[in-house]
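Handout, section B. The chain below has 342 residues.
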Amino acid sequence: MDLDRFPRVSLAHLPTPLEPLARLSAHLGTRFGGGPRLFIKRDDCTGLAFGGNKTRKLEFLLAEALEEGADTVITAGGIQSNHVRQTAAAAAKLGLKAELVLARNVPWGGGDFEHTGNIQIDRLLGARIHLLPTETDRAAAMEALAAELRETGARPYVVPVGGSNPTGALGYANCARELAAQAEDTIEGFDYLVFASGSGGTQGGLVAGLTALGHRAQAIGIDVDADPPEVEAVSRELAAATAERLGARGSEAADRVEVVAGYAGEGYGLPTNGMRRAVELVARLEGILLDPVYSGKAMAGLIGLIAEGRFKPSDRVVFLHSGGTPALFAYRSVFEGQDPSD
């Protein structure tokens, strides 16, 4: 799989660690009468302003922006968007201006939600923030903003929500290659890869990368949007398009996409009891902090799959930690005064 032919800038600390989850494996094995060996791929450790999975995508996206002569980056997300925070940080590192279109798309949260966590970091990074109503068409808002900036002589580059297009997904094709080599060297390979799936770029890239490598591992996305058919459709489309760019069969990659429903709760960004218990369990057994929007719900999904008997005791299951730590502060009230055994 030749990724060197695509423009790329260095933003992430790579390779990210691959670590055993020994205490969590033992706990879940006892609780459910057996379970797989669990490992964690620490993409919360990519290094850019608290890290996270979007940094891998931005290495390819912002290389494209620089090749096009851009001086400004525009992107969009929710108020607590990890993608937006990492884009603002990458822009600062590369000397680009950042314009952030933030929609109030999560009907939850008090004062913490609009003033701490990711949005606090966005402001610290010097980005210009455009706060818009819930029903905003973010793609249209970005294009309108880009047109306004061009009239002033600026040269904007629009990064899609989540960095999720075939260019951004190359970052996770690269992650698949990195993980395959790392796992072969340290844990004798892996059988399953479990992660949060939302805008589709991470899942599309991972599946495309595994397909291009001819790797047999199954990539399982846990829906965090409460819209699994849409998440699966977008992931299939991105997997196919990215695989084609890598010289692999797009139809084969699309057929390998799996999205598991039932762990997103009432909607994107809305807390669930399963998420809270998963975040607290991993913190107290492994000293690792998951986030309430993505990796916490994905871990709840992994625990659910173990409870259902999806995996054999001999299976090696890698959980991809996609980052998002700053959102813990914005969701402070979810974790106060709660018993993880609830």
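Note. The beta strands are 18-20, 37-42, 72-78, 97-103, 128-132, 156-158, 192-197, 218-223, 258-260, 316-321. Compare this with the example in section A.
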